[in-house]
Amino acid sequence: MPAPYLSTPNGKIVEAFSLGLYKSQNIARSRELIEISVLVAGRVAARVGPVSYHSLRNHFSTHHPFRRKGEKVSGKFTVTRSVRGFPYSSSVPFRVNFITLPNGRMKFSLNGSVLAASGSMKLVRTRVRAMRKAVRSVGSRSARNSPARPSPEIWQQQFFRVLQTSAGLNSQTVVPIPSTTRIWSGVRTPGYGKLKSRALPDNPHTVDLTIWNRNRYCWNQVQPATGAYDFRLRPWTELITPHQPPGHLTEADTNALRRLVSNANSGINANLAQNIAQVSQLSNLIIGNASKIGKALWQLKRGNLTGAASTLTAGQQSTKWNGPKGKLSTAKGVASNWLQLQYGWKPLLSDIQGLFTSLGNLQSPNDSVQSASSSATVRKEFVEAWPPGVGPAGDIPGVTKHLVSTTTKYRIRYKVSSPYTAFLAQTGFTNPINLFWEILPFSFVVDWFLPIGNYLESFSAWDGLTFLGGSKVQFTRTKTDSTISYHGLATGNPSVRIDWEAEVSFDKVLLGRGPLSSFPNPVQPSFNSSGLQPGVRAANAVALLVQAFR
């Protein structure tokens, strides 16, 4: 769409913003970047990019640079294609169509869809591909010495800034604003081109990439009675420091570590220690249900079908819930049977299966190298009142939203150095703190919102194992949007009207990769407000409430 225009109270029409307000969210993962420059007598009159090829199609801007008579106007396409970190670049000229205005300025437009489909664009892209193909045919990637990228890498775009007041201020300038910033650190691998992927070391590497999509702050203040006005159009970052989003979410680390323990088969597979500590409850569960089945069979032999069904569906009052004694109501009977299934029979059957698995590990040789990997993704939204209200509309704060997605990946290699110690850990005998937590009434409810049980279980997960190597990768993508919108009278001065529109939007990518020197340490649990998930947990919560209240 064309660049918008704003009308000031004195009747002048100014171009609100003509450069740089295009979306470039694909630039982070694009290997091909396009840059377009328009020059008047050798000086840059407009520049677009670097942006990805697809982002260019969404760009449209109109420009009015000053041009003296006879000065040459030229355009230039530049395409840079990065392959495995090495850039291949080429440029070709293109013709700029413009018209001359009466005030000595010229007018031309940059239509991204037209430029992307032009013959000059096709020519320069073909040259870059041919250049890459020619280099690849000479030798492999190890035949050249790829230079390291600079850090930080900074790309800029242009913004048309306007400052006008009734007091005589009239400033219109093109200023640079950030487009993309990339900060990285890491270790390079000697002979990388000759190594196979499985032989590559886990070198530490970090990336902090920021891609700016919108960066605009517009303030228009008018006093109709006197004709006074104050119009300011400038970049947001020139006035307000954007709020940085949170980093890697710890919940992803916690979930990935829990899955790593499960995939390595090193967690508590069969909690025999807990079953021994709760042997009385376990006996009541088995004996009580055996008695119900026997009584139901006795009733069936005498043809009492109704009595048999009532006996089988009747609940059993558990001493664990400390409820009132006596015959249970129908609702409490259903709730009792459901809780017995969820926290009695299912854990018991799982422990029996886990015991056979642990016994198999006890007989396995301890000299073989084993590996395990895991990953977990967590998404969250954060909303805050930022920036705070300032100036004549000081009671109007802005709104900032952060959409955060974090993925954590673990990969380890290990061997079983002590099968007997590993067996005791997998059956719950080497972790008394976790045992104490598990036998506490309603501790599982706390785990819904604060996973303390998983945190305590991980302390003994690596008992009897020897660490050989591994790595950890954390990847976070955040989309941040900050907005201010106010149209009304100034606070404390109803004779002044304010139109206030501002927006800053940027995407941020954080990558952290590094080798592990030992088994990963447990991550302290954090509160999960959505712990009561619909489904089984919700049904468990209803059954607990029915058991707890009359």
What is the distance, rounded to the nearest whole angstrom, between the alpha carbons of the first and last residues?
Answer: 66 Å
Runs with pLDDT <50, length 5+?
1-30, 138-144, 318-323
Q: Biggest sheet, open or closed, and with what strands and sense? A: 8 strands, antiparallel
- Taken together, the total number of domains comes to 2
Count of extended strands? 17
Give structural notes.
The chain has 550 residues and is of the alpha+beta class. The chain has two domains: 31-147, no CATH class; 255-548, no CATH class. It contains 13 helices and 17 strands. The strands form four sheets. Strands 10, 11, 12, 13, 14, 15, 16 and 17 form an eight-stranded antiparallel beta sheet that branches. Strands 4-3-6-7 form a four-stranded antiparallel beta sheet. It has a three-stranded antiparallel beta sheet with strand order 5-9-8. A hairpin with a 2-residue loop joins strand 6 (73-83) and strand 7. Helix 6 packs antiparallel against helix 7, helix 8 (330-362) runs antiparallel to helix 9 and helix 8 packs across helix 13 (536-548). The longest helix has 33 residues, at 330-362. The chain is extended. The model is unreliable at 1-30, 138-144 and 318-323 (pLDDT under 50).
Quick recap of the structure?
This protein is α+β, with helices and mostly antiparallel strands.
SSE layout and pairing:
Blueprint: E1 5-7, E2 13-15, E3 32-40, E4 43-52, H1 53-56, E5 60-63, E6 73-83, E7 86-94, E8 99-100, E9 106-111, H2 112-116, H3 119-138, E10 153-165, E11 170-186, E12 205-223, E13 228-234, H4 250-263, H5 272-277, H6 279-301, H7 305-313, H8 330-362, E14 370-384, E15 399-416, H9 419-426, H10 432-438, H11 443-449, H12 452-457, E16 465-490, E17 493-515, H13 536-548
Antiparallel strand pairs: 1-2, 3-4, 3-6, 5-9, 6-7, 8-9, 10-11, 10-13, 11-12, 12-13, 12-17, 14-15, 15-16, 16-17
Helix pairs in contact: 6-7, 8-9, 8-13
